[in-house]
């Protein structure tokens, strides 16, 4: 009861509304699954489902048929576990830190083994329990970030006792340049992936992230691992985005004013009015995940009207040039769009000199979060 009252108050108190359309999320999952069919489509739900709330996102994807969930850190697996039924698999991309093997085995979480050391630790855990423990094995095919080098893989295959007690369910690797279809690294990684795959023919192959799903059949494998495309981000750079938009962000106006030529705007007076103009201050800033790089660069929208950001982005507020709107259009409490039908994730990311991934995972905690349920659509 107390929490209901509290959440009513919080709903009214918040100056911004972040709407997360779980119906669009599920539609995106279905679209990707269809592209991969008959192969499986997993979901990458690391970083709190790219900032959108894993407690809501993961069950919605499970209900849509997803059974494999990738997180980055083991702590994320621990927190995700209670939100998913027992037949869902949780895999940990960053591998296992020494000391967490027993907890990982107890929880039935599947580690991605990225080194011979992690293989040895997981095998020791299995042997000490007299159990067979599942794992994914990651090969580095050219990104130099995570996974076994080719010679380490040879060592592992030449000395199979190293895998005692470990069942390799999935062999995987990750594309460094998948979002740039013409990049030569894609073909080089594919060739190395095929060589690895040939040495481990019984394991399922997992290669494609969101971009990989759109690179053609060669890149797909048995278990695709999309992240950003589920959340509405464009899988490929510079092409039309086939995904449905999942996120909408609206922020309230906290003050409006008219200033004269010469007025200095915001910290550092980085913007000076050239003529009379109308300004609106909105209640979100870099502490809410709107990057400071949007200073004098990005915009908000009211309908089709672009409202440029003037001056620096503050911690808790942003000043907009609303001169393009008839006087009195925006009033205290009115909402403008930061992400939505008029300004996509890609547009705001590009204005901020970053990528959709960073915008999503930075979305602040001060917005009211509204989840549209798939059933309600
Ligand atoms: C983050 C990540 C993914 C998902 O990538 P997207 O580009 O968001 O689809 C897949 N695999 C690995 C190893 C990752 O780190």
Keywords:
377 residues, 2 domains, binds pyridoxal-5'-phosphate, 7-stranded parallel β-sheet, 12 helices, Lyase, Ornithine Decarboxylase, Chain A, domain 1, single chain, 8-stranded mixed β-sheet, EC 5.1.1.1, 23% strand, TIM Barrel, alpha/beta
In short:
Helices cover 30% and strands 23% of the residues.
Number of domains: 2
**pLDDT < 50 stretches:** none
Strand content: 15-25%
Q: State the helicity in percent bands.
A: 25-40%
- Report the radius of gyration as a whole number of Å: 24 Å
Structural class: alpha/beta
> What is the CATH homology-level superfamily of the largest domain?
Alanine racemase
CATH topology of the largest domain: TIM Barrel
Q: Mean pLDDT, nearest integer?
A: 95
The largest sheet, given as strand count, sense and whether it forms a barrel, is: 8 strands, mixed
- Overall shape: it is elongated
DSSP summary: helix tally: 12
Overall CATH architecture of the largest domain: Alpha-Beta Barrel
Bound molecules: pyridoxal-5'-phosphate
Q: What is the tally of beta strands?
A: 19
Cofactor: pyridoxal 5'-phosphate
Catalytic activity: L-alanine = D-alanine
Domain Alanine racemase C-terminal: 246-372
Active site: 46 (proton acceptor), 267 (proton acceptor)
